[in-house]
Amino acid sequence: MISIRRLNSASSTFNAELDALLAFESAQDPAIDIIVADILDDVKKRGDPALLEYTRRFDRVHATSVAQLEFTRAEMDAALETLPTAQRSALEQAASRVRSYHERQVAKSWSYIEDDGTQLGQHVTPLDRVGVYVPGGKASYPSSVLMNALPAKVAGVGEIIMVVPTPDGERNQLVLAAAALAGVDRVFGIGGAHAIGALAYGTETIPGVDKIVGPGNAYVAAAKRRVFGIVGIDMVAGPSEILIVCDGSTDPDWIAMDMFAQAEHDEMAQAILLAPGAYFVNDVAASIARHLESMPRRDVIAAALEARGALIEVRDLNEACDIVNKIAPEHLELSVAQPAELLSRIRHAGAIFIGSYTSEALGDYCAGPNHVLPTSRTARFSSPLGVYDFQKRSSIVSVSKKGALKLGAIAAELARGEGLTAHARAAEYRMK
Predict the structure, then answer these.
(1) What percent of the chain clears pLDDT 90, i.e. is strictly above it?
(2) In the chain, what are the domain boundaries?
(3) For the domain 5-24+238-367, what is the CATH superfamily, name and number?
(4) Which of 43, 304, 376, 388 could share a disulfide with 263, CB 3.0–4.6 Å?
(5) 62 is catalytic
(6) Average pLDDT of span 260-269
(7) pLDDT at 26
(8) 30-233, which class in CATH?
(9) pLDDT tens digits along 201-248
(10) Quick one: three-class SS letters along the chain?
(11) Residues forming a β-bridge with 120
């Protein structure tokens, strides 16, 4: 029998209980950090030989050159061509929807001219080269390929380098097919912290990139933290999360399965329900108990729900919105009869799924918006991965002779106030 915590917002201890539920130690494990630091330093110094050594050690793949670990374009295309018809159709439709959504995010360059002829503006350009890390080993993630590579492609990134571990040499055809569909330029069968090092520093075979995106295990996350500043990164994500607000109008079996869908990711995933009144909360609890045994990953689901899950009874939906903004969840479902009334009150959430028919699982694969989302309350200050993460903005300043007189006087006055005489004179010389 599963034991999932029950909370009530009317309790005097509720805030403390909620804080304890949300607590997640995101600080780097010192032991992992030491190991990763050594691996990154080795890859930086030795390049390809270090990659080959770590690939033999961790993935049990023996190669005499890193070039042997690269998948050819023909292999990627063949993987796509040989997929079962239904699987290929689903992958292509998902890719089309993700691409279409992200095409609407493309930022444009702009400028304007002031009365004195001074021109100001913004010049938008894509990154030159991006690295995409795709997890491998326990499972395959073609959806991760689409969500990370397609926005980069839409942004106009010049070259996309993908790395994916292939434990014991096992190559996942669905991942390679997704790479072909997404327009990935090169794919290497390596993973772990050493793959992050290769992308950050470059080796004899793998070119260095400007930004690294994509999820990974604790060692990959630690490596991304360490190379940030040398390259850009998307984010350091924590365990997956879902927060469901329900008014009791949705089938409790649907809600239970949505909670399962997050909990089956891993034992640290978090699934929380907010609902007014004990009646519906009791129904969902009963549904969880009834369906758990039929789930292939029931042990993982049970562990996640017992460790970090909760069924929370709230006074009303207004209070539910206040709790949502405190939690700032990765995924938020507004499974209520009148979701528009709640949406205006939501300030912090990675992705918002509106209405009873909108399961979060659709967002993971094919709805269109990106599934790379801020976790661990970082939705308070960050956003989903998108085209904007693969574009840069340069300021444009073109000052006219007349404008130099006006702006020069302002700049000189402020520069002298800061004690920077050369700044003042540089502006004043152009005023003469």
Answers:
(1) 93
(2) 5-24+238-367, 30-233, 399-429
(3) Nitrogenase molybdenum iron protein domain (3.40.50.1980)
(4) 304
(5) no
(6) 94
(7) 54
(8) alpha beta
(9) 999 999 999 999 999 989 999 999 999 999 999 998 889 999 999 999
(10) CCCCEEEECCCCCHHHHHHHHHCCCCCCCHHHHHHHHHHHHHHHHHCHHHHHHHHHHHHCCCCCCHHHHEECHHHHHHHHHCCCHHHHHHHHHHHHHHHHHHHCCCCCCEEEECCCCCEEEEEEEECCEEEEECCCCCCCCHHHHHHHHHHHHHHCCCEEEEECCCHHHCCCHHHHHHHHHHCCCEEECCCHHHHHHHHHHCCCCCCCCCEEECCCCHHHHHHHHHHECCEEECCCCCCCEEEEEECCCCCHHHHHHHHHHHHCCCCCCEEEEEEECHHHHHHHHHHHHHHHHHCCCHHHHHHHHHHHCEEEEECCHHHHHHHHHHHCCCEEEEECCCHHHHHCCCCCCCEEEECCCCCHHHHHHCCCCCCCCCCCCHHHCCCCCCHHHHEEEEEEEECCHHHHHHHHHHHHHHHHHCCCHHHHHHHHHCCC
(11) 112, 397
The residue type of 216 is G
Amino acid, single-letter form, for residue 93: Q
Catalytic residue status for 330: yes
Q: 275 with 285: CB under 8 angstroms?
A: no
Nearest residue to 333 via CA among 266, 209, 247: 247
Domains 5-24+238-367 and 30-233 share a fold: yes
pLDDT value of position 132: 98
Cβ density class 83-96: b for 16+ within 10 Å, e for less = beeeebeebeebbe
- What pTM value is reported for the model? 0.93
The catalytic residue among 102, 331, 333, 371 is 331
List residues bridging with 246 in a β-sheet.
335
d(CA 385, CA 372): 5
pLDDT at 27 over 80: no
Q: Of 241, 264, 330, 360, which is the active-site residue?
A: 330
Per the structure block, which two tokens stand in for 284?
A: 């969902």
